[in-house]
Structure to design on (808 residues):
């Protein structure tokens, strides 16, 4: 794509209402736009990153046989009353239809929707287990929204739900999801700094788990066991003072961003909705459930917080950047340079590369400042100087044309 | 995919609250589920169809250089007040944040969001033209919802917005979109029965255009010129009694489903939001806009209304069906049949086909009834009888294994 055709432009200054680094960089670089506090539009560059993250998540979940579907955002009050969360979940947007006076909620999570749907498809143990997920827009009526796309009032989540006939089977799938999550963070370039973190399991399980990415700006506090490369969250550190995997008590306190959580729901929702199955001996039992979340837009914000060099310079991991290559032409007044760079642009595309091609007639300083903001992982510079050396510049080195 | 692994199941009966054929078939076949009146979940089979339709729309719009983005569903009141539609658009869901008392709308269209965003990127005529679209969930507070996914309270739309420095340029892009839309309908298998339809242009243009698919269950009435293969809608037939393209007055009244509309907004929204550009001579002028919609979920419903053979039998167009091939094994008690069908399943997948493989131990009558509901375009039957003839059955014919 020609950079001159991009509908967005980079900006030096943005409004001062954005406190977070991720929103500042993403707005300055033309990836996102604030529509109101906590609510953002994803412009073409940002949308591409979002889709790349989604695709990695999708691929890893499909590998563990989860089936993708799409649940609605509008929910009837009756389902939320069944679990008591119509009253108790304070971030739920609640409103009435003008015409029908029906009371509605905007989904901030989907246990109340998927559980009654599953009733249609589960009769006996032979219908179990299965897992299903969606990548969908969620809503939370947050008191304050000041963390950019790390915590929005509207955001994109992957939520996965699994259904089992035994706790053993749930435990096995829970481990599969754990591994899938670790694969996802690895592919996003944050594998080394993202830790499985022990958290409270609520009424039914000893633990649930979060996945926490270490970052000084993180809202969460965790206690890291560097032997096992796992952590314990602040909530349970008083009762769990040593690493649950190796009993190490030398835990190191760090700040982190929660980028995923997995939870054994057991029978909490199946009991609320009478979701039962008949076991091998003909006895009716409540279905055993797990739920597993990853904030897709939050992950995008996390990548900015982690990989931004400063507030004017970003470097996306290769796996999710909006383009594979940023091809930048200097000396656009030279016919030879223009011709050679067009040839290179066409060649790279033929090789299947997605290329952002900056052949604009601008000063090098402007072009590099914009390229720094946009942050594409691989940058190729072509100019009179590099052509004189029969090549291009990549990472400060001259690379011959036939070696690109 | 093994059919036994599908999380959905077909059903013979559904609740009587579904009046429409599309919802009846889609629920019975396990494609969708009703969550409340006008609000549906898309189960894995339905989600695949939705994504296939989206991809066709996306490809045709990318060809005309439109750039994909994603706008939010939560809108601040202030933007809707600028155009007066906070009061006038009766289907807008309006509500308040519990915490901040901010008044919000749920987007039923996005002119009020894209226009102020475009202000950030348009200064001079050199920034024009451009076009941008999204495929996104929209909301309408409908008085009644009785047409299944043809008219939901929550639905999926593709909305495209274009920005121009002259009406000539808008006119040219409008023609490109018209052609893209006709390509889309053709690829969906409804090209022959979907007509460009003249509609009222409102204050600023003589006409706008709809795309209407002929169907007896359609809510719209159109008047077809069979010479030009275009139509005129009911709204303007009193003032436009002949075909605007050939003056033919022999127009034939038909019922139809609106599957797209395109509209020259001119400067209506750019004036409301002060969206201006500087022309070649340095004069500030309002940007000229067009908007173009296609209901993605409505298209899916239309395909059911058009291609359903009866209320128990559907046949998806090859381009959007959830699988390329439905492979059905009979005589699953024969080891040879089981082995041969597994081999065939693997071979078809190696050829890049997406296959739904029904090797369940069920009676043929049950399998065929379910396959009729699911409606995959190509069905391959393998049984003791076909293997004896060294082949499979496709459309009632024995096809040798090496000719599949």
């Amino acid at each position: 794509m020609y950079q001159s055709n991009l509908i967005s432009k980079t900006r030096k200054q943005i409004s001062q209402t954005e406190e977070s680094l991720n929103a500042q960089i993403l707005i300055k670089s033309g990836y996102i736009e604030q529509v109101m506090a906590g609510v953002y539009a994803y412009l073409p560059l940002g949308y591409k990153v979002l889709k790349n993250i989604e695709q990695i998540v999708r691929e890893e979940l499909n590998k563990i046989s989860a089936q993708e579907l799409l649940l609605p955002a509008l929910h009837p009050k009756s389902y939320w009353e069944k679990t008591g969360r119509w009253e108790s979940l304070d971030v739920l947007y609640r409103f009435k239809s003008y015409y029908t006076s029906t009371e509605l909620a905007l989904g901030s999570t989907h246990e109340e929707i998927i559980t009654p749907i599953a009733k249609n498809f589960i009769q006996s143990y032979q219908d179990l287990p299965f897992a299903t997920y969606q990548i969908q827009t969620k809503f939370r009526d947050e008191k304050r929204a000041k963390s950019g796309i790390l915590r929005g009032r509207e955001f994109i989540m992957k939520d996965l739900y699994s259904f089992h006939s035994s706790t053993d089977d749930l435990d096995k799938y829970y481990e599969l999801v754990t591994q899938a999550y670790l694969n996802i963070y690895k592919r996003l370039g944050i594998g080394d700094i993202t830790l499985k973190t022990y958290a409270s399991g609520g009424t039914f399980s000893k633990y649930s788990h979060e996945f926490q990415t270490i970052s000084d700006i993180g809202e969460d506090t965790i206690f890291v066991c560097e032997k096992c490369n796992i952590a314990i969250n602040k909530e349970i550190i008083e009762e769990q003072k040593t690493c649950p995997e190796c009993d190490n008590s030398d835990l190191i306190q760090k700040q982190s961003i929660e980028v995923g959580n997995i939870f054994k729901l057991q029978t909490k929702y199946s009991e609320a909705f009478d979701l039962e199955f008949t076991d091998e001996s003909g006895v009716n039992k409540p279905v055993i459930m797990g739920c597993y979340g990853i904030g897709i837009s939050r992950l995008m914000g996390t990548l900015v917080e982690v990989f931004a060099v400063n507030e004017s310079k970003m470097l996306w991991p290769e796996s999710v950047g909006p383009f594979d290559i940023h091809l930048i032409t200097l000396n656009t007044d030279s016919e030879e340079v223009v011709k050679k760079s067009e040839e290179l642009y066409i060649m790279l595309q033929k090789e299947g590369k997605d290329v952002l091609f900056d052949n604009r007639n601008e000063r090098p300083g402007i072009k590099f400042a914009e390229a720094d903001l946009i942050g594409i992982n691989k940058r190729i510079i072509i100019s009179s100087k590099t052509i004189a050396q029969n090549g291009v510049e990549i990472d400060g080195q001259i690379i011959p044309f036939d070696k690109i």
